[in-house]
Amino acid sequence: MDLILQPVLVDTGEEGAGCLVFANGWLVAVLVRLSDTHEDEAGFWFLEKGFGKLDTPDPPLFSDLPTAEQWIKERLMIRRPPRWPGDPG
Amino acid sequence: MVGRFVENLELYGRLSDDDRAAVDALPMTVRRFDAGEDIASEGDAPTQCRLLLSGLAFRHKTLSDGRRQIMTFHVPGEVCDVAGLLLSMDHGVCALTRAEVGFIGHSTMDTLLEKHPRVMRALWRCEMVEAAIAREWMVGMGRRTAYTRIAHLFCEMYARLKAMGLANDNRCRFPVSQTHLSDALGLSVVHTNRVLQQLRADGLLTFKSGELTVHDWPGLKAAGEFDAGYLHLRTPTT
User: Fold this and answer.
1) Smallest CA–CA separation between B167 and chain A, in Å?
2) Which end of chain A is more exposed for a tag (fewer CB within 10 A), N or C?
3) Mean pLDDT of B114-129
4) What is the pLDDT of residues B36-77, one digit of tens each?
5) Which helix (H) or strand (E) holds A19?
6) Domains of chain B
7) Minimum-distance CB partner of A13 among B67, B186, B194
8) Which pLDDT belongs to residue B236?
9) Beta carbons within 8 Å of A52's beta carbon, 6+ residues apart
Protein backbone atom coordinates (compact mmCIF):
# COMPACT_ATOMS: atom_id res chain seq x y z
CA MET A 1 0.00 0.00 0.00
CA ASP A 2 1.33 3.41 -0.96
CA LEU A 3 0.79 6.41 1.24
CA ILE A 4 1.05 9.93 -0.09
CA LEU A 5 1.82 12.69 2.38
CA GLN A 6 0.82 16.18 1.33
CA PRO A 7 2.18 19.09 3.42
CA VAL A 8 -0.53 21.38 4.70
CA LEU A 9 -1.08 24.05 7.36
CA VAL A 10 -3.52 23.02 10.09
CA ASP A 11 -5.17 25.61 12.34
CA THR A 12 -4.62 24.09 15.79
CA GLY A 13 -3.35 27.25 17.46
CA GLU A 14 0.21 26.00 17.07
CA GLU A 15 2.86 26.39 14.36
CA GLY A 16 0.54 24.68 11.94
CA ALA A 17 2.93 22.24 10.23
CA GLY A 18 0.98 19.18 9.21
CA CYS A 19 0.22 16.81 6.40
CA LEU A 20 -2.70 15.05 4.83
CA VAL A 21 -2.18 11.32 4.44
CA PHE A 22 -3.74 9.59 1.44
CA ALA A 23 -3.95 5.83 0.96
CA ASN A 24 -4.88 4.69 -2.54
CA GLY A 25 -6.38 8.12 -3.13
CA TRP A 26 -8.45 8.15 0.10
CA LEU A 27 -7.80 10.76 2.78
CA VAL A 28 -7.16 8.62 5.87
CA ALA A 29 -5.42 10.93 8.35
CA VAL A 30 -4.30 14.42 9.26
CA LEU A 31 -0.97 14.55 11.09
CA VAL A 32 0.29 17.63 12.94
CA ARG A 33 3.79 18.38 14.18
CA LEU A 34 3.76 19.45 17.83
CA SER A 35 5.33 22.78 18.78
CA ASP A 36 7.67 23.59 21.66
CA THR A 37 4.72 24.13 24.03
CA HIS A 38 4.50 20.33 24.27
CA GLU A 39 7.95 20.17 25.89
CA ASP A 40 9.07 16.51 25.86
CA GLU A 41 6.84 15.76 22.88
CA ALA A 42 7.85 18.83 20.83
CA GLY A 43 8.59 17.75 17.27
CA PHE A 44 6.49 14.61 17.57
CA TRP A 45 3.72 13.96 15.06
CA PHE A 46 0.17 13.73 16.42
CA LEU A 47 -2.75 11.97 14.76
CA GLU A 48 -4.95 15.05 14.74
CA LYS A 49 -7.71 13.23 12.91
CA GLY A 50 -8.01 9.69 11.66
CA PHE A 51 -10.74 8.47 9.34
CA GLY A 52 -12.22 5.00 9.03
CA LYS A 53 -9.92 2.46 10.66
CA LEU A 54 -7.71 5.28 11.93
CA ASP A 55 -10.53 6.90 13.90
CA THR A 56 -9.64 6.32 17.56
CA PRO A 57 -10.55 7.93 20.91
CA ASP A 58 -6.87 7.75 21.88
CA PRO A 59 -4.96 9.32 18.98
CA PRO A 60 -1.29 8.33 19.15
CA LEU A 61 1.93 10.36 18.99
CA PHE A 62 4.83 9.39 16.74
CA SER A 63 8.48 10.34 17.11
CA ASP A 64 8.85 10.81 13.33
CA LEU A 65 6.92 10.49 10.09
CA PRO A 66 8.22 7.02 9.08
CA THR A 67 6.93 5.67 12.42
CA ALA A 68 3.56 7.32 11.76
CA GLU A 69 3.43 5.83 8.26
CA GLN A 70 4.22 2.37 9.60
CA TRP A 71 1.41 2.60 12.18
CA ILE A 72 -1.04 3.86 9.56
CA LYS A 73 -0.17 1.03 7.18
CA GLU A 74 -0.56 -1.58 9.92
CA ARG A 75 -3.96 -0.22 10.94
CA LEU A 76 -5.14 -0.09 7.34
CA MET A 77 -4.06 -3.71 6.77
CA ILE A 78 -6.54 -4.95 9.39
CA ARG A 79 -9.29 -6.56 7.36
CA ARG A 80 -12.94 -5.91 7.91
CA PRO A 81 -15.98 -7.01 5.91
CA PRO A 82 -16.76 -4.63 3.00
CA ARG A 83 -19.67 -2.35 3.82
CA TRP A 84 -20.52 -1.29 0.28
CA PRO A 85 -19.28 -2.02 -3.26
CA GLY A 86 -15.86 -0.41 -3.65
CA ASP A 87 -15.35 0.04 0.13
CA PRO A 88 -11.58 0.60 0.54
CA GLY A 89 -11.72 -1.96 3.40
CA MET B 1 -11.58 12.96 64.57
CA VAL B 2 -13.60 12.99 61.35
CA GLY B 3 -11.67 15.71 59.50
CA ARG B 4 -13.98 17.91 57.49
CA PHE B 5 -16.92 15.49 57.42
CA VAL B 6 -19.16 17.79 59.48
CA GLU B 7 -18.28 20.83 57.32
CA ASN B 8 -18.99 18.80 54.19
CA LEU B 9 -22.38 17.58 55.47
CA GLU B 10 -23.30 21.15 56.43
CA LEU B 11 -22.82 22.22 52.80
CA TYR B 12 -25.87 20.07 52.08
CA GLY B 13 -28.08 20.43 55.11
CA ARG B 14 -28.42 22.00 58.56
CA LEU B 15 -27.29 19.84 61.47
CA SER B 16 -28.08 20.21 65.16
CA ASP B 17 -25.40 20.28 67.87
CA ASP B 18 -26.42 16.73 68.69
CA ASP B 19 -25.94 15.66 65.05
CA ARG B 20 -22.50 17.28 64.92
CA ALA B 21 -21.43 15.61 68.15
CA ALA B 22 -22.58 12.21 66.87
CA VAL B 23 -20.69 12.62 63.59
CA ASP B 24 -17.61 13.85 65.44
CA ALA B 25 -17.69 10.80 67.70
CA LEU B 26 -17.78 8.27 64.84
CA PRO B 27 -15.20 5.56 65.50
CA MET B 28 -12.90 4.92 62.57
CA THR B 29 -9.58 3.46 61.63
CA VAL B 30 -7.27 5.65 59.55
CA ARG B 31 -5.20 4.41 56.62
CA ARG B 32 -2.78 6.34 54.45
CA PHE B 33 -2.69 5.90 50.68
CA ASP B 34 -0.01 6.97 48.21
CA ALA B 35 -0.91 8.92 45.10
CA GLY B 36 -2.14 6.51 42.46
CA GLU B 37 -3.15 3.84 44.96
CA ASP B 38 -6.71 2.53 44.82
CA ILE B 39 -8.75 3.34 47.93
CA ALA B 40 -11.60 1.14 46.70
CA SER B 41 -11.55 -1.25 43.75
CA GLU B 42 -14.19 -2.15 41.22
CA GLY B 43 -15.95 -5.33 42.33
CA ASP B 44 -15.40 -4.70 46.05
CA ALA B 45 -18.35 -5.36 48.35
CA PRO B 46 -17.47 -2.80 51.03
CA THR B 47 -18.27 -3.32 54.69
CA GLN B 48 -16.94 0.11 55.63
CA CYS B 49 -17.40 3.66 54.35
CA ARG B 50 -14.26 5.45 53.21
CA LEU B 51 -14.14 9.06 54.38
CA LEU B 52 -11.48 11.23 52.74
CA LEU B 53 -9.74 13.01 55.63
CA SER B 54 -6.95 14.69 53.67
CA GLY B 55 -5.73 14.77 50.08
CA LEU B 56 -7.78 14.39 46.92
CA ALA B 57 -9.17 11.31 45.17
CA PHE B 58 -11.08 10.44 42.03
CA ARG B 59 -13.60 7.88 40.87
CA HIS B 60 -12.69 5.97 37.76
CA LYS B 61 -13.40 3.05 35.50
CA THR B 62 -10.44 1.44 33.78
CA LEU B 63 -10.76 -0.60 30.62
CA SER B 64 -8.98 -3.92 30.06
CA ASP B 65 -6.26 -2.22 27.98
CA GLY B 66 -5.53 0.33 30.72
CA ARG B 67 -7.45 3.28 29.25
CA ARG B 68 -9.24 5.11 32.00
CA GLN B 69 -12.24 7.38 32.45
CA ILE B 70 -12.33 9.59 35.53
CA MET B 71 -15.90 10.28 36.67
CA THR B 72 -15.42 12.79 39.47
CA PHE B 73 -12.88 14.18 41.92
CA HIS B 74 -13.29 13.98 45.69
CA VAL B 75 -12.32 16.70 48.14
CA PRO B 76 -11.59 16.22 51.86
CA GLY B 77 -14.67 15.64 53.99
CA GLU B 78 -16.45 13.53 51.38
CA VAL B 79 -17.32 9.86 51.69
CA CYS B 80 -15.87 8.27 48.54
CA ASP B 81 -18.20 5.28 48.49
CA VAL B 82 -21.60 6.19 49.91
CA ALA B 83 -23.14 3.85 47.34
CA GLY B 84 -21.14 1.04 48.95
CA LEU B 85 -23.65 1.12 51.82
CA LEU B 86 -26.16 -0.47 49.46
CA LEU B 87 -24.26 -1.68 46.38
CA SER B 88 -21.01 -3.36 45.45
CA MET B 89 -18.45 -1.11 43.78
CA ASP B 90 -19.03 -0.77 40.03
CA HIS B 91 -16.00 1.54 39.73
CA GLY B 92 -12.79 2.27 41.61
CA VAL B 93 -11.70 5.18 43.80
CA CYS B 94 -8.06 6.20 43.52
CA ALA B 95 -5.92 8.59 45.57
CA LEU B 96 -4.91 11.59 43.46
CA THR B 97 -2.43 12.76 46.09
CA ARG B 98 -1.20 11.19 49.31
CA ALA B 99 -4.41 10.74 51.20
CA GLU B 100 -5.64 9.84 54.65
CA VAL B 101 -8.85 7.85 54.68
CA GLY B 102 -11.07 7.06 57.65
CA PHE B 103 -12.79 3.66 57.53
CA ILE B 104 -16.18 3.65 59.27
CA GLY B 105 -18.04 0.35 59.66
CA HIS B 106 -21.34 0.15 57.79
CA SER B 107 -23.24 -0.90 60.91
CA THR B 108 -21.88 2.17 62.73
CA MET B 109 -22.86 4.40 59.81
CA ASP B 110 -26.32 2.78 59.56
CA THR B 111 -26.93 3.44 63.25
CA LEU B 112 -25.83 7.08 62.90
CA LEU B 113 -28.12 7.61 59.90
CA GLU B 114 -31.10 5.97 61.63
CA LYS B 115 -30.70 8.07 64.78
CA HIS B 116 -29.87 11.32 62.98
CA PRO B 117 -32.17 11.84 60.01
CA ARG B 118 -30.68 15.28 59.28
CA VAL B 119 -27.30 13.60 58.74
CA MET B 120 -28.96 11.06 56.47
CA ARG B 121 -30.64 13.80 54.45
CA ALA B 122 -27.37 15.73 54.12
CA LEU B 123 -25.50 12.61 52.96
CA TRP B 124 -28.32 11.75 50.58
CA ARG B 125 -28.29 15.28 49.19
CA CYS B 126 -24.50 15.11 48.79
CA GLU B 127 -24.90 11.90 46.80
CA MET B 128 -27.59 13.51 44.63
CA VAL B 129 -25.24 16.42 43.94
CA GLU B 130 -22.67 13.88 42.80
CA ALA B 131 -25.22 12.63 40.31
CA ALA B 132 -25.79 16.25 39.22
CA ILE B 133 -22.04 16.65 38.71
CA ALA B 134 -22.02 13.49 36.60
CA ARG B 135 -24.86 14.91 34.48
CA GLU B 136 -22.94 18.14 33.99
CA TRP B 137 -19.82 16.24 32.92
CA MET B 138 -21.92 14.19 30.50
CA VAL B 139 -23.25 17.38 28.91
CA GLY B 140 -19.66 18.60 28.67
CA MET B 141 -18.33 15.48 27.01
CA GLY B 142 -21.26 15.22 24.66
CA ARG B 143 -21.82 18.81 23.71
CA ARG B 144 -19.12 21.21 24.93
CA THR B 145 -15.83 22.10 23.26
CA ALA B 146 -12.52 21.09 24.84
CA TYR B 147 -11.95 24.73 25.83
CA THR B 148 -15.32 25.01 27.58
CA ARG B 149 -14.96 21.60 29.23
CA ILE B 150 -11.61 22.40 30.82
CA ALA B 151 -12.73 25.87 31.92
CA HIS B 152 -15.85 24.29 33.44
CA LEU B 153 -13.87 21.68 35.37
CA PHE B 154 -11.56 24.33 36.82
CA CYS B 155 -14.60 26.41 37.85
CA GLU B 156 -16.19 23.38 39.48
CA MET B 157 -13.09 22.35 41.42
CA TYR B 158 -12.41 25.92 42.50
CA ALA B 159 -16.01 26.31 43.74
CA ARG B 160 -15.99 22.97 45.57
CA LEU B 161 -12.59 23.52 47.19
CA LYS B 162 -13.58 27.06 48.16
CA ALA B 163 -16.77 25.78 49.76
CA MET B 164 -14.62 23.50 51.92
CA GLY B 165 -12.28 26.38 52.85
CA LEU B 166 -9.50 24.99 50.65
CA ALA B 167 -9.19 27.94 48.24
CA ASN B 168 -7.95 31.41 49.12
CA ASP B 169 -7.00 34.52 47.16
CA ASN B 170 -8.21 32.95 43.92
CA ARG B 171 -5.85 30.01 44.39
CA CYS B 172 -6.29 26.34 45.20
CA ARG B 173 -4.23 23.17 45.13
CA PHE B 174 -5.53 20.85 42.44
CA PRO B 175 -2.54 18.63 41.69
CA VAL B 176 -3.77 16.83 38.59
CA SER B 177 -1.53 15.97 35.66
CA GLN B 178 -2.55 16.66 32.08
CA THR B 179 -3.24 12.92 31.83
CA HIS B 180 -5.75 13.14 34.70
CA LEU B 181 -7.46 16.10 33.01
CA SER B 182 -7.55 14.21 29.72
CA ASP B 183 -8.97 11.10 31.40
CA ALA B 184 -11.63 13.19 33.13
CA LEU B 185 -12.70 15.13 30.07
CA GLY B 186 -12.36 12.58 27.28
CA LEU B 187 -9.57 14.51 25.55
CA SER B 188 -6.11 13.66 24.26
CA VAL B 189 -3.20 15.01 26.29
CA VAL B 190 -2.24 17.07 23.22
CA HIS B 191 -5.64 18.80 23.15
CA THR B 192 -5.56 19.34 26.93
CA ASN B 193 -2.15 20.98 26.70
CA ARG B 194 -3.27 23.25 23.86
CA VAL B 195 -6.36 24.37 25.79
CA LEU B 196 -4.35 25.07 28.96
CA GLN B 197 -2.03 27.30 26.89
CA GLN B 198 -5.08 29.04 25.41
CA LEU B 199 -6.74 29.61 28.82
CA ARG B 200 -3.50 31.12 30.08
CA ALA B 201 -3.03 33.25 26.93
CA ASP B 202 -6.60 34.52 27.39
CA GLY B 203 -5.66 35.72 30.89
CA LEU B 204 -8.20 33.50 32.66
CA LEU B 205 -5.97 31.26 34.78
CA THR B 206 -2.55 29.85 35.46
CA PHE B 207 -2.19 26.17 36.19
CA LYS B 208 1.31 25.23 37.27
CA SER B 209 2.80 22.58 39.55
CA GLY B 210 -0.65 21.51 40.67
CA GLU B 211 -1.75 24.99 41.69
CA LEU B 212 -4.68 26.70 40.03
CA THR B 213 -4.72 30.50 40.07
CA VAL B 214 -7.85 32.13 38.73
CA HIS B 215 -7.06 35.55 37.25
CA ASP B 216 -10.51 36.40 35.93
CA TRP B 217 -13.38 34.52 37.65
CA PRO B 218 -16.20 36.06 35.59
CA GLY B 219 -14.21 35.38 32.41
CA LEU B 220 -13.48 31.78 33.42
CA LYS B 221 -17.13 31.19 34.30
CA ALA B 222 -18.20 32.56 30.92
CA ALA B 223 -15.60 30.42 29.12
CA GLY B 224 -16.81 27.32 30.96
CA GLU B 225 -20.54 28.16 30.70
CA PHE B 226 -20.42 27.54 34.45
CA ASP B 227 -23.44 28.08 36.65
CA ALA B 228 -22.83 26.75 40.19
CA GLY B 229 -26.53 25.94 40.63
CA TYR B 230 -26.00 22.22 39.98
CA LEU B 231 -23.63 22.02 42.99
CA HIS B 232 -26.54 23.09 45.25
CA LEU B 233 -24.13 24.57 47.79
CA ARG B 234 -25.63 26.49 50.68
CA THR B 235 -22.94 29.16 50.25
CA PRO B 236 -22.26 29.18 46.53
CA THR B 237 -19.16 30.73 44.97
CA THR B 238 -20.45 33.59 42.84
Assistant:
1) 28
2) N
3) 96
4) 999 999 999 999 999 999 999 999 999 988 899 999 999 999
5) strand A17-23
6) 5-127 (2.60.120.10), 145-231 (1.10.10.10)
7) B194
8) 58
9) A26, A28, A88
> Based on the number of CB atoms within 10 Å of its own CB, is B73 exposed (0-12), middle (13-18) or buried (19 or more)?
buried
- How much is the pTM? 0.91
Give the angle B52-B137-B72 at the CA atoms, nearest 5°: 15
| Domain segments of chain A as ranges | 3-77
Interface list for chain B against chain A, based on CB atoms closer than 8 Å: 67, 186, 188, 190, 193-194, 197-198
The whole-angstrom distance between residue A41's C-alpha and the CA centroid of its chain comes to: 17
User: Does the ipTM exceed 0.90?
Assistant: no
Helical ranges in chain B per DSSP H:
5-10, 17-24, 106-115, 117-143, 146-163, 178-185, 189-201, 217-224
In A, minimum Cα distance to B66 occurs at: A58
Which tens digits make up the pLDDT trace of A36-73?
989 899 999 999 999 999 999 889 999 999 999 999 99
pLDDT attached to residue A88: 62
CA B201 to chain centroid: 27
User: Tens of pLDDT along A71-81?
Assistant: 999 999 887 77
Nearest to B98 by CA among B36, B34, B41: B34
The pLDDT-based confidence of B124 (bands split at 50, 70, 90) is: very high
